[in-house]
Amino acid sequence: MPASSSVSVRVPVEERLFSLVLALLATKGGLTKQEILSSVQGYRQHYALGGDNSNLERQFERDKDDVRELGVPLEKTDSAGQTGNNQNLRYRIPKGDYDLPRDITFSAKEITLLELAGMVWREQSLSAQSRRALLKLRSLGIESDEPIVGYAPRLRIREGAFEPLSSALERQKIVTFDYLKPGESTPQTRTVAPLALVQHQGRWHLHATDEDAGGNRTFLLSRFVGPVRLTGRSFTPTGEGHADRALNELEQIWCQNVAEIDVVPGTDAATRLGKQVRGSTTTTAMAPITVHYTDMNVFAAELASYGPEIVVRAPTPLRDAVQRRLEKIRADHERPHDG
Amino acid sequence: MGEHTYPFHAQDKLVFLLALVPYLMDHDRISVTEVASHFQVTPEQIRAAIRLIAISGVPGETNQYLPGDLFDIAWDDFEDNDQIVLTHRVAIDDSPRFSAREAAALIAGLQYLSALPENANRDVTGRLMAKLSRGASATPSELAVAASQTDESLGLIRDAVAAGTQIKFDYVDSRGQHEQRRVDPLRIESLDQDWYVRGWCHLRQALRTFRLDRMIDLVRTDKPLSRREADTTLPDTFFEASADDLSVILELAECALPLIADYSPEGTEPSGVAGRVLTSVRVAHFHGLKRLVAGLAGTVTVRSPPEARLLVADWAAAGASHYDTA
User: Looking at the structure, do residues A64 and A136 belong to the same domain, yes or no?
Assistant: First the structure.
């Protein structure tokens, strides 16, 4: 049932992309751009023989990016000895790099776990990535051993900086952003090469090479002020295991920072801050506990939310930060609003 | 769960087509409904994909997309019996690899879930992560999530959900009050580091959400559930709204709106101060609100009603008073 070559035929985007992938998978030596535009379904309907095809060429450029974004290894190769001559560039998708290796298989139990892992992301691009990964997994035809009733785990991404950083990380682009350092009131502009995005203690961090500081630094995403901007420059990442290293560093900081806090037993603060004070619900006497934290100001905000249920004993800067916050809230809410 | 239908964009549709073809190649004959249930999409999405696959192919030697260059299906089986029989295939032999970001998304999800009682055996997670890496077309992006911390109560509730039995516990609500609860556990949910159980509360005779870290003396009982998840529609919004909810006007920095997203703010209007807006949220009582606002000093203030402002001011003043004399 060959499609008509009439211009009036509207070929859906997915049909054009599917036809492009099929054509490039089937070719051994590759196809030139002219061959693709003039012969592949979805392009050929709009191809002007000997005419101006610049719109169609731009379309092809966008399609290539879309296809590559899905993990399809769409290659550009130079014909031997013809380097630099655009007319001889050829495109293809090598089967060996496209096919999921046959020895990669999953048990029913593993499929169940992966389905659950994919469910963790409900928003932004990670949700779309997981859905696509799960479609590819289902392609293997393995049924999960039991339906995942009973669990609905979820990780949130509330920071607007996550999405542009994730894209810059993937495309190895250098970015700049304004960052509010703990204890400072005016943000500083940082220029960094993103190496990893990690979530620790429920908070997202960027691990990156800071060009001005001349070393690797970890930034808390909730301290970003304003948008993340692309510099137009790229970088080549060196080494691996950046994400694990960043998580280990954050874990160390968390272990080193210890607060001494008195907590009213039986309160929400007591339940949330530690299991140590659980159970002794009859007494109203303050019970001392020690709690770890990563970022003093972020922790001060959490502690302020507990109001009179806690008193910070140490360290002094944390104690002062909590007191200042409580006084600010009291001042902001003292009288009925007169507006 | 997993039955949400998402809007399919062209890229998603392409992935779906590339995933569907190898699956069909492995099945000589299969019904549309069976494929739909396996891929967790609607039968109509399967039929549309099959119609597209059946007219697709490669340009071929003639560049004319002749019949031998195209996929083909047994049309009668498809049109009359809703059965899929792939009779000719081109170009595709195997499932596609994962993209670097797809593999990374699943790997980070697995890391987060490594705290589940099912995953006590770390080898399983590690092996799976290695397989995903090897099955990706490029090294997975550097994305990592620290395992969420859980305790034995998660395992106990999970067993109760699986066995279909009720649980009992002493619950501390956000006001610090204790009550004995008997609950049909329907689903265990999490939000970042916090774990919850949603279920039918026999005390309130209503669906309720309970935080695991607010439960004391949790025990499993032998009593079977009085309701099952299938009989009960669990709303997607995490916290149940009620007609008795109170409306509160908040003033906040516009960029802080995501911080109160859980409270489903209803629209915004200018506050008169540059960069700050007014919005309204509905809450069951002001006690949860005072904690939220106290945790966002200077970012969010309560405009009205006056009793909510007073409650926040008193809460902060009582907290601050601990420090005045020290």
Answer: no
Domain range enclosing B159: 152-231
Lowest-confidence segment of A90-104, A323-337, B95-109 by average pLDDT: A323-337
Per-residue pLDDT, averaged over A268-276, amounts to 72
Q: What percentage of chain A exceeds 90 in pLDDT?
A: 61
- Do A281 and A315 lie in a common domain? yes
What is the span of the domain harbouring residue A320?
257-333
Domains held by chain B: number: 3
Per-residue pLDDT, averaged over A307-313, amounts to 93
- Residue A165: inside a domain, yes or no? no
Residue A338 is assigned to a structural domain of this protein = no
Residue A180 Cα distances to A165, A297, B258, angstroms: 17, 11, 18
**Which residues touch A289 (CB under 8 Å, ≥6 apart)?**
A260, A261, A262, A263, A273, A274, A276, A277
Pairing relationship of beta strands A258-263 and A310-314 according to DSSP bridges: antiparallel
Q: What does the alpha-carbon distance between residue B198 and residue B185 come to, in Å, rounded to a whole number?
A: 6
- The token pair that represents B40 in the structure block: 């967790």
Confidence band for B2, pLDDT divided at 50, 70 and 90: very low
Question: Do residue A130 and residue B6 have CB atoms under 8 angstroms apart?
Answer: no
Specify the pLDDT at position A278: 39
Q: Are A219 and A236 part of one and the same domain? A: yes
Q: Do A170 and B101 touch (CB under 8 A)?
A: yes
Q: How far is the CA of B219 from the CAs of A281, B154, B206, in angstroms?
A: 18, 12, 20
Length of chain A as a residue count: 339
For residue B162, list chain A residues with Cβ-Cβ distance below 8 A: 150
For residue A7, give how far its alpha carbon lies from the nearest alpha carbon of chain B (Å). 16
Asked whether residue A209 falls in the same domain as residue A242, the answer is: yes
Q: CB–CB of B105 and A129 under 8 A?
A: yes
Task: Dump pLDDT digits (tens) for A166-218.
Answer: 999 988 999 999 998 766 778 899 999 999 999 998 889 999 999 988 899 99
A13 contacts chain B (CB < 8 A): yes
Interaxial angle between packed helices A124-138 and A162-171, expressed in degrees from 0 to 180 and rounded to the nearest 10:
60
Same structural domain for residues B253 and B211? no
Based on the fold, state whether residues A242 and A268 are members of the same structural domain. no
Which tens digit of pLDDT belongs to each residue from B112-155?
888 777 776 667 888 999 999 999 999 898 999 987 777 788 88
Q: What is the DSSP string of B117-144?
A: GGG--HHHHHHHHHHHHHTBSSPPP-EE
Which one is predicted more confidently, A279 or A56?
A56
Inform me whether the C-beta atom of residue A333 falls under 8 Å from chain B C-beta atoms: yes
Interchain pair A337, B131: CB under 8 A: no
Contact status of A171 with chain B (Cβ, < 8 Å): no
Note whether B252 and B223 are same-domain residues: no
Residue A319 and residue B323: Cβ atoms within 8 Å? yes
Single residue among A81, A98, A115 that ends a domain in this structure: A98
Q: Is residue B140 part of a domain?
A: no
Q: Which of B231, B258, B274 is the last residue of a domain?
A: B231
Query: Who's near B284: CB < 8 A, 6+ residues apart?
Result: B239, B242, B244, B245, B246
B209 in any annotated domain: yes
Measured between beta carbons, which residues in chain B are less than 8 angstroms from residue A255?
none
**pTM of structure:** 0.85
| Mean pLDDT value of segment B37-61 | 95
Domain termination residue (choose one: A77, A98, A119) = A98
Interchain pair B146, A198: CB under 8 A: yes
Taking one residue from A and the other from B, the number of pairs with CB-CB distance under 8 angstroms is: 397
Q: Is residue B214 part of a domain?
A: yes
**What is residue B39's predicted lDDT score, i.e. its pLDDT?**
94
If asked whether residues A151 and A216 sit together in one domain, one would say: no
